[in-house]
Amino acid sequence: MKKTFLLLTLIFLNTPSFAQTLSGFIREQKSGESLRDVSVSVNNTRIGTTSNQYGFYSIKLEGNREQEIVFSRVGYKSFTQKIILQKNQTLNIDLEPAVTLLEEVAVLSEKQAKESEKIEMSKISIPMQQFKEVSVILGEKDVIKTLQLLPGVQKGNEGTTGLYVRGGSPDQNLMILDDAVVYNANHLFGFFSTFNNDALKSVELTKGGFPAHFGGRISSVLEMQMKEGSRDKFHGEGSIGFISSKLTIEGPIKFKKPVSYLISARRTYADLIVPSSSFPSLYFYDLNAKINTELSSKDRLYLSTYLGRDVSAITDKNDKSEDGFGWGNTTATLRWNRLISEKIFVNTSLIFSQYKFRVYNQKPTPQGDYLLEYSSKIRDFTFKTDFDAFVSPNFSIKFGGIITQHLFAPNAYVLKNPEKDTSGVRANEIKALEGAIYLENSWKISSKFNTNFGLRESTFIVGERTYTNLEPRFTASFLPSENWAIKASYTQMNQYIHLLSNSGLGLPTDLWVPSTEKIAPQKAQQVALGIVRDLPKSNMSLSVEGYYKEMDNILGYKQGANFLVLDFGANPNRVNSVDWQENVTSGKGKAYGMEVFLQKKYGRLSGWMGYTLSWIKHQFPELNNGQEFYPKYDRRHDFSFVGIYKLRPKTTLSVTWVYGTGNNITIPIGTHYASKHSFGDVYGNSAIRVEQLGEQNNYRAAPYHRLDVGFRFFKKKKKIERTWEVSAYNLYNRINPFYYESRAVSGSSDYQLYRQGLFPIVPSVSYHFKF
After folding, report:
1. Burial of 89 by CB count in 10 Å (0-12 exposed, 13-18 middle, 19+ buried)?
2. End-to-end alpha-carbon separation of the chain, Å?
3. Residue 351: beta bridge partners?
4. Would you say 214 and 221 are in contact if contact means Cβ atoms under 8 Å apart?
5. Domain ranges for the chain
6. Is 444 exposed, middle or buried (0-12, 13-18, 19+ CB in 10 A)?
7. Distance (Å, whole) CA 115 – CA 124
8. How many whole angstroms separate alpha carbon 642 and alpha carbon 654?
9. Beta-carbon neighbour count of residue 754 at 10 Å?
10. Backbone dihedral angles phi then psi of residue 636, each to the nearest 5 degrees
11. Average pLDDT, the chain
């Protein structure tokens, strides 16, 4: 550590004395929202930098001479300022959003940030406006379902919100909402995600080349920032759809210091329409809220929170039984931004995150009352701090640390007479401590060669075991000519928590568990190589990437095992003697492939095309006789097209077409009948049909493809914007396989496989308003 601070001191001391620093914050005009990734450059030179996630920038310039500084970001009008620096100076900038009508092409400046000039690779950002214009099922805009249309992101089953990134599973994605980890991103069993796009300001997905300040997962990072609230005046927007409605309000608060707020709420209402006596009462709601203030010109304070719940219950009047379930996320983040100097920016956060669910069945019987309960909870308290040091126009450093206290509580049991005797049941709780420190730098070695080096040290303490790992990171970018870049990256990642899943659907009944003295953390290393080509005249960018990833200690259930204890009615004490670690097996995996991504973020026609060619292989000692097999979501080909076209200034057409190779499933290779003697007296006198299984995932399902089309009709009257949207999901009514079942062939002993779909063509109409 002493050597690190000595190096930093020498770098600062060797900065030329005639250079001066220009720094400040960049915000959106009127709303006052901070803008990240704004390009700040000196005209007619290669000197430049970008603003961080809080809109702060710092650039060192030669003093006592006039220079022209250009501020640009896709979707905003560029701003140019001539300046002569005689001393360090602060310059705050407000950028004006570009016109969104047909004239937009003419309004956008030619000077925009180029993908080829960025050091990062395997990172995709989508403008929030495109999230709102992409057609999805039932008109409910969904961040996760839109991300599923990107290359390298495999879709789960029809209707689910799981992300399978470059061969990873849903638990291997780090989902961050204002610095807080979100553990389960599902509403309504995965048909919708927990993220309300009206409350979000930015969404970025990183699939590889991870910077050192991210850790704890091995497949991807999904970073989302909530809006900060308008500092200009009171605003609002909302929508009314078939199954849900939402409302967002934001505005300033009159106070001695600048204060703004945001509140966004959403709820489904099927439970209010359908009588609960004939159908389970099922609904979800969520709430986003944020408030921030400027304590001084150098200090800013943010407080944000998220609360989401899914609830369902049904009572059978005949046998007086009750079934129910509920799950949800709660997060809260308190962040303090401090500008230490013109060159050093620090963000410190206190974070609370909790996810829990409970599924139960309570039933009276002649032998007594029974309660089956299946529950899980994970709760985190986190402290983190990050420093950004802008040493020179060609060199910047980011360093910091994070520490998290975890509490895991996975439980499953059946009780007899629970109101009379629960003395034998205790909640299983596991406590763990996770921490990390990191150091990374962005170094522009020359006008053609950029690098990012990073090193992260992570530690996990559980019981008597301490895991410590070093995670090197490296990304390089070479620009052989204008608008071209060749990029490469290498990363190592460690993950200390696991998700036990029976279904593979990412349902809320999946259980989060930690690494233990017996279960080692998941590990992964990934290399990637890619080419980026900017097409400035058409406002497009093209990237082609190849990757190879190895994974160790990935976790799965043993054949036929699960967590739920089904036979403890007579002796509830046994629930505490069951060790989930005995029912799981650790294995390894590898994933490799190629991705092509053509993107156009703005203009009369916008959207993207993506194609993925990939292979995924798993190997577990206790599955498939120890041989390699293709997991369920190995898809050889995956293609997506998303087009958003402004037919008229007030009419927009969106078209989405996706195609994917079918999932892998295990089907029987034969059947035979066994008498009662093979299974005792469980099945009575009749013989039973027993299926003979072959290799793991020995059958590939039919391909998945569908077409979605939507029209948006915009109208503005008396300062209120109104938008009607008419859309159709799965327009040509493709029956995509959700699951397969075997049925006996009439007059024969043979069985035939039938595929069952989930969604036919689904039309929807929704109404959106903004004031």
Report:
1. middle
2. 53
3. 333, 382
4. yes
5. 18-113, 123-130+140-223, 224-663
6. buried
7. 10
8. 7
9. 11
10. -70, -45
11. 84
pLDDT in tens, 205-262: 999 999 999 999 999 999 999 999 998 889 999 999 888 899 999 999 988 888 999 9
- Calculate the alpha carbon distances from 468 to 209, 359, 437, 555, 573 in Å: 21, 36, 11, 20, 36
Tell me whether domains 18-113 and 123-130+140-223 share a fold.
no
- In the block, tokens 């569908």 appear at 706
Residue type, 453: F
Tokens found for residue 120: 């990062």
Least Cα distance to 348 among 329, 333, 362 occurs for: 333
d(CA 372, CA 370): 7
CATH class of 123-130+140-223: mainly beta
Structure tokens at 768: 């959106």
Q: What is the pLDDT of residues 103-142, one digit of tens each?
A: 444 344 444 567 888 888 999 988 888 888 887 777 778 8
On the 0-12 / 13-18 / 19+ scale of CB atoms within 10 A, 6 is: exposed
DSSP annotation of 189: G
**DSSP letter (8 states) at residue 101:** S
287 closest CA partner among 304, 311, 303: 304
**Sign of the C-alpha dihedral, residues 58, 59, 65, 68?**
negative
- Those residues whose C-beta lies under 8 Å from the C-beta of residue 319, and which sit 6 or more positions away, are 363, 364
In contact, 695 and 663? CB cutoff 8 Å:
no
The structural architecture, per CATH, of the domain 224-663 is Beta Barrel (2.40)
Of 514, 525, 571, 578, residue with least CA distance to 547:
525
For residue 4, give the 3-state DSSP assignment.
Answer: helix
Give yes or no for a contact between 225 and 200, defined as CB atoms under 8 angstroms apart: yes
Query: CA separation (Å) from 2 to 6, 7, 8?
Result: 6, 9, 10
The predicted model gives 538-564 an average pLDDT of 85
Looking at domain 18-113, does it have CATH number 2.60.40.1120? yes
